[in-house]
Amino acid sequence: xxxxxxxxxxxxxxxxxxxxxxxxxxxxxxxxxxxxxxxxxxxxxxxxxxxxxxxxxxxxxxxxxxxxxxxxxxxxxxxxxxxxxxxxxxxxxxxxxxxxxxxxxxxxxxxxxxxxxxxxxxxxxxxxxxxxxxxxxxxxxxxxxxxxxxxxxxxxxxxxxxxxxxxxxxxxxxxxxxxxxxxxxxxxxxxxxxxxxxxxxxxxxxxxxxxxxxxxxxxxxxxxxxxxxxxxxxxxxxxxxxxxxxxxxxxxxxxxxxxxxxxxxxxxxxxxxxxxxxxxxxxxxxxxxxxxxxxxxxxxxxxxxxx
Length: 307
Prior knowledge:
By secondary structure, the chain is an all-alpha fold.
């Protein structure tokens, strides 16, 4: 039996990638290119047969109510992402630092408590918090009244400028377990010798964190922030389950995910006829923003890590 040549052995690993590449091409690459193609067409309902070039993008960016709703959703999406970036990741890092403490007892219990919300369905979580925030009989307002904070009692999901932040905070509460576990894993991989050396030098807790822990987990922080950006910039279900497809009140909680759903799938009220070409244009813009955002964040964190 003839032995395989060195070249055949060297390239044999490619066959292991074929299944993954096939799945990626079928379910990711082809839909992406199809979406880019559809964004250049228009039509009634699901009949997309008229080539319009970049007219869909012009409508989104420049024309009347369509542009107003798009730019409003675009700005709200950045707010939604910023709340997650600040609240979710900051709490995740704090919890990870506490859980990595050698003096903390019952670590497994605390890990479970923090991570359990991430295992729940988002629709279920949104519905439960919608009940808790109900202005008439919700537990949040009842507790505030009982402890003497009647001035804080308000329709949390019915106020412009408040609804979106409340939904983002609920979403941050649900997913805080993910960055916590990632940060905790990174902290536990730091060699004990470094902490022992810091103790010998008389370094305090802040010095240990800023001079030992933070530089070593900085690349992981970059990964967490990129995941936060990609997961929340195309978010949909949190707003949909707590406020609805229109992002009430007065579209103040509308984000790109709900805007895309109304435009490209469900159709805008009251007509209810979807414009798949316009929806594909929204999806294409989201893809471009995500692509550029990830490139910028990767370059920033890579430059910081190389210093």
